[in-house]
Amino acid sequence: MTRGVRKAIVPAAGFGTRFLPITKSTPKEMLPIVDKPVIQFVIEEAISCGIESILIVTGRGKHAIENHFDHAPDLESHLERQGKQDLAEQVREISEGVDIHFIRQKKQMGLGDAVRLGRSFVGEDPFAVMLGDTIIDPAPDTGIHGLKELLDVFEETGASVVGVRRVPEELIPRYGIVDGDVQSGENLYRLKQLLEKPSIEDAPTNLAIAGRYVFTPEIFECLESTGFGAGGEVQLTDAMNELAARTPVLALAWHAIRYDIGNKADYVRCFLDYALRHPETRDAMRAYLAELA
Ligand code: G1P
Questions:
Q1: How close is the Cα of 229 to the center of ligand 1, in Å?
Q2: How many CB atoms lie within 10 A of CB 130?
Q3: DSSP conformational letter for 181
Q4: Tens-digit pLDDT profile for residues 79-99
């Protein structure tokens, strides 16, 4: 049986308060990782996992995201006139390869509300949610992308599934934390309870929701009845609790490397890791780090 997931919602509407002052005028999702904005990595991950259609949920002050994925014919022809075909091609590729739609969240009412805005885009299909401020590298041991691992679980089980990672205790209050029964292997859980940003004392585990989800459309019914939760926002985590009460919801503990761009230390680590891989900066960065050491 095939349960092909071809659509993704990419929430990118948050104020990015943890990253002020830069986020006063630059969306967090547009912060550069060497020469690409964070959200471009998310879109590339989606494409490599077979997603064909993406809805980006934006909000006030997020025009830079729309501009980035739009055609830029004047820039492309300028580069071509200068003989910079490679760059022209790179710029063109950003707006090709996938069908991107935008919707604006008029009021900041949380992640659950942002996902809810995708209901008519999704229709009756299963879909992915990929947070626009989270970069997931393929797992070092398998080379498989984070979302792809979730899609494989969904293909096999038909159940909604979320990617989770163990976090150090002090980071627990920053994330949605899950508790569940081991389902198979060591890393697949059936969820019993999800808590949005609990205190360390209240957290049943240190398994934190890590920015990639695959849902059946039933999540929208749950979102309709979800009120305001932690932080006075409509929390996706609360709707997932409701979903888990109706039907099995799974969590897959990943080995994939995750960079939470809402967290300054993670952002800097991400920039550094990519600078150490980028062909134009790799050697200079290695030499610089050796000098610092
Ligand atoms: C959101 C979710 C949270 C999840 C986190 C991952 O929180 O509400 O459950 O763990 O993303 O980054 P936010 O970062 O929007 O505060």
A1: 13
A2: 29
A3: E
A4: 899 898 888 888 888 878 789
